[in-house]
Amino acid sequence: MSKISKCLFPAAGYGTRFLPATKAMPKEMLPIVTKPLIQYGVEEAMQAGISDMAIVTGRGKRAIEDHFDISYELEQQIAGSDKEDLLGDTREIMSRCRFSYTRQMEMKGLGHAILTGEALIGDSPFAVVLADDYCVAEGDGVLSQMVKLYEKYQCSIVAIEEVPMEETNRYGVIAGELEAENIYRVSRMVEKPDPAEAPSNLAIIGRYILSPDIFDIIRNTPPGKNGEMQITDALQTQASQGNVIGYKFQGRRFDCGSVDGYIEASNYTYQSQCNPS
Ligand code: G1P
Fold first, then answer.
1. How far is the CA of 134 from the centre of ligand 1 (A)?
2. How many other β-carbons are positioned within 10 Å of the β-carbon of residue 51?
């Protein structure tokens, strides 16, 4: 049985909703309190037993590579001081994980970003984390929950949550049969449908487990919503064969691709980490 050992992070997007903050800085480096969004994603993947982090970057994203690298000058500067501890988590990540990078040269959609990562992933099932969906959970993280589910179902899995009907046009939306508590066998998937056309209010959030045949399927799927290569459309091919599970995860997700969600996530994390009273 294949184990999930790699996680792909599509991280080439511009983050225009956060301009001017993201003019020269990747949106994945926006901090929730003191840790950048992408680091939370990497930690979630590590908790799920994954040690290979494959990051699809783009122009202006060098800070991500620098973040997961040694900074000799800085480390020498703070060596022996109480500030050293602040780099502890990052050091731990660097000692336990392997990072690889590739660049997406044109923005042609999430499907295209994932296809760009093929060279880093190869022919095994893999996880995908969209770092701007920031997830918190008590106990197992969302990706750990999904990796466990993969052991049973051995097919692609998308994390889903209920959203207000009027927001379906912001997400991939699924329809399916309830197979067990919180687990749906997906039959239909639509990218960002208007509420009137949405098959349900079960929205896909930025956590996926994908079987590697998805790469060929993406290659053979015509552009969809907004003329972009959509992962949702490629997954529909697998769903038509009964090979996609929708999983209502345990935990809470913040949409840090929006200013409101980002502020909410920051306040929540500050309250729970720094000011727990
Ligand atoms: C992408 C996917 C969408 C999914 C969403 C989750 O959209 O295309 O299906 O629901 O991520 O965050 P984006 O937010 O990149 O527009």
1. 13
2. 13
